[in-house]
Amino acid sequence: MSSFKLNNDFTIKVYTGSILDRKLECEAITISIFKKSFFEQKVGLVKAAIATFGSNVKKNFEKEIKKLPKNFELEGQCIVVETGKKKPKYLFNIVLDSIDPKNSTKFESLMKKSLENFFESLNHSNEIKSIAIPLLGTGFSSGPVNSSINILLDRVLDFHNKGKMIHLKELHLVNIEEFKTQLIVKKLNEILKKNAAPLDLKLESLIYQKEDNIDELECVCKLNDNMLQKENLQNKEKLNFDTNQCSWCKQKLKNVKLIDCGHLVCPSCYCDIKENKIKCLIPDCSHNNDRTNIDVAKENKIEKICEICCETYDSLKVLEKCGHELCTNCFKRLFESKPQCPFCYTFYGIPKGIQPSDGKMSVINEKFSLPGYEKFSTIVINYRFPPGRQTENHPNPGKNYSGSNRTAYLPGTEEGFKAQKLLEKAFENRLIFTIGISVTTGIEGITWNDIHHKTQISGPYGYPDKDYLKRLFEELKAHGIE
């Protein structure tokens, strides 16, 4: 996860996962919905939303539609309904239709209108402090990813800078595709660094490395004749994602299936074919009326669907700790960058941070006591980093940064010594610090990485603080240290 704090009251969180994951801690989530079909839609997030929240969400949507005036222009509007759940309590439905990726002017106009209505709808409720939203218009509609990112971030920052984010505290940008997450993080880094001084923007981010220190695959998206390209920085191989089109949903992908009737279908539509036990989604396809003994045998065969790629397999890999299942290909692709379950976020190993590798951590036990722990000694931790130069895993490779010397304090209790050992483990995995923009100075360099330390004996950054160790253990666990 990458976290961007625009100020003390508003944070943007960017990560890869399902927006309908039960572990997602947001008061509301957002999906796009086609104007012609609404909740009769048989593909994408609409179908998944009904499966998650039940048919009542469809009924609530229809009630809201009936309240609108006749001839009301729905395209680009945001219809908000209750889910019947505690979290997320609300489902924001952005009505999209007639998306033509080749017509960039029309596409940008519709996206801007949709996001304007989205944020205006947010301000109508003081209950919603956090909301999750995917990259709209880039799924079945095949809209240009790079352009969509620019429009989304432009609207977000514009609303924030004009003080229009009245109640919202957290905006979660959640996408199932890792390359979209990487592109959003990269773009936010560029924007925030460019405007950090005049806008007083603060940046904190965590980037995971592979265990063997192989350079991460950087995803670069370019809109060029509506072709989406993914560049591998290690071997310069370029993959063309715009080679085939699904015959049903019209999504353009590299990986499509050629089914028996000759139609091409994307992984999601192929899932629908399997679930509905039909041969093709095209209504007038002759193969739908041509059932054979082979068809019946196939229908009776037990197959499992990977919830990440929607491909079918005879068996799936079961994660030992949490029991979630995914295919071997998705397991390798996701776990080589971050050893964490994409559904419940359980760690299966310790991630690697981007903390400079030449730092030193020393620990001594002093006889004086901290406020609130008068009967105990004090653990004094010192972190020391020499001046250095950013590497290719840092925000600005080749740029120099100053050295740093930090001191922190823990009580000499049983829990305090436990915290010390966990901090040593986090330091070994380069997770205590990162390279980013300091919240206090606004200067780019070595900064804390969301594992808070007590840097004073007493006062605002010191003791007494009876809940500090509990919070510290939770922050370490969030980084895979426990």
Task: Report on the architecture of this protein.
With 482 residues, the chain is α+β, with helices and mostly antiparallel strands. It is globular, with a radius of gyration of 25 Å. It is built from ten helices and 25 strands. Helix 3 packs parallel to helix 4 (145-161), helix 4 (145-161) runs parallel beside helix 5 (178-199) and helix 9 runs parallel beside helix 10 (468-478). A hairpin with a 7-residue loop joins strand 4 (78-82) and strand 5 (90-96). It has helices at 44-53, 56-66, 104-122, 145-161, 178-199, 267-276, 293-300, 328-335, 414-428, 468-478, and strands spanning 2-7, 10-16, 28-34, 78-82, 90-96, 130-133, 170-175, 204-205, 229-231, 238-240, 244-245, 252-253, 257-258, 264-265, 304-305, 312-313, 317-318, 325-326, 360-366, 378-385, 388-389, 400-401, 404-411, 433-437, 444-448.
